[in-house]
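name: query_chain
kind: protein
chains: 1
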Amino acid sequence: MSPANPQNPVSVEAGLAQRAGSTGLILGHGVMAPSTLGTFLRAFTFGHVRQLDHVLDQALGRAWAAGTGPGEARLVIDIDSFVGEVCGDQKQGASYGYTGQLGYHPLLATLAGTGEVLHIRNRKGKANTQRGNPRFVDELLARVRRAGATGTILVRADTGFENHKLFKTLAARAIEFSIGVKQRKPIRALIDLIGEDAWVKVEDYPKTGEAQIAETKLGDWRLIVRRTRLLGAQAELWPDWRYHTLATNQTGPLELIESEHREHAVIELCIRDLKGQALAHFPSGQFAANSAWTVIAALAHNLGRWTSQIGLPNDATRTAAVRRHRLFRIPGRLTRTARQWTLRMPARWPWQTDFTNALTRIRELPALT
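structure:
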């Protein structure tokens, strides 16, 4: 197992801290030792990981039914992959990928606006970005429909997910997509055919540079092109235009589609939160155990997100670290009077109102049948 990391409050070794004091009385069960947790993880097989994935599926449906779901509203899904770094060279499946870092290469799908994880799949470190994408997207779309999303769906991704077979599959299922396109020679040739009078200036771009957008056709799809360059003294660094392209089947205004696609970057905030919690490391030497850990990390992340969405609906979305500090890591002590246990919290906790309001709203949820 990986050694304890004092900077990471979510790890197998952090179970030692949970075993101190009266944590078991609060949880209603004993807190397992790190070695026991490690044995539990190593018992997972690929089939067990898929069962855990089903738990994530069911949890999403229940949370959305409790009031966090989009219902008939438009659903914007961001898909990406990231490198989960590891330190040990004996971890099964870990290898060097395109970044030159040793680790795993999970696939991730998140919901824009809330940051909750809709789907996650661990992969070997050397896996190409395209590996497993069609099935992953198919499972993702089926999951959000089962969970209760009935409105329009938009799937956003970067150039690593460019796949014309995927484009056709999404269009056939009436799913909107906005996916980056690599700068190959045929694409550059299409860009060169765009007349100078077709470029539209982006007004909200910083004054230190200039951005313009235009569009052409890529087969059956709209090919939207964005070009940028620096102005002033910094222009000597990149005096020429730099181009970025995306393919889409949307029919909306050019400016809106291009602007919305750039918001795909919000998925990096979810990756940051996951790496700031359980995915700061992968604790086992076995691939199936680390794959189970990946899904468990997504479940824990979502539970925190749903706590804020249901308990504090009018509050701005917090990072995982802030939520953990204000709502989850509150000091307290257990007292026993008249054969009854009482958990006493700090009387002047700065976020006492947030905690009590969230707890009250969550307790008001109807019981599961």
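note: The radius of gyration is 24 Å.
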